[in-house]
């Protein structure tokens, strides 16, 4: 039986690889961008209870939207 931590890790990999497939890039690239934005923990692990009940399409949409919003916020913070 998997622990909750293991389930969250497996879910994070699923999310990263699913986003990568939709964007046509590697999972490593998506992970690097999420890590750079500081989104791995709050988006993929802390939101596990809510996100893991959603469809794959909804999860990918959510992750991509958060990435866009955090990039925009980052860019506005620099100007």
UniProtKB/TrEMBL annotation:
Protein name according to UniProt: DUF3791 domain-containing protein
């Amino acid at each position: 039986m998997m622990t909750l931590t293991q389930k969250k890790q497996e879910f994070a990999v699923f999310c990263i690889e699913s986003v990568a497939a939709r964007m046509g890039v590697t999972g490593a690239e998506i992970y690097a961008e999420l890590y750079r934005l500081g989104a791995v923990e709050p988006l993929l692990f802390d939101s596990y209870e809510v996100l893991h009940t959603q469809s794959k399409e909804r999860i990918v949409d959510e992750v991509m939207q958060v990435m866009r919003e955090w990039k925009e916020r980052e860019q506005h913070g620099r100007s």
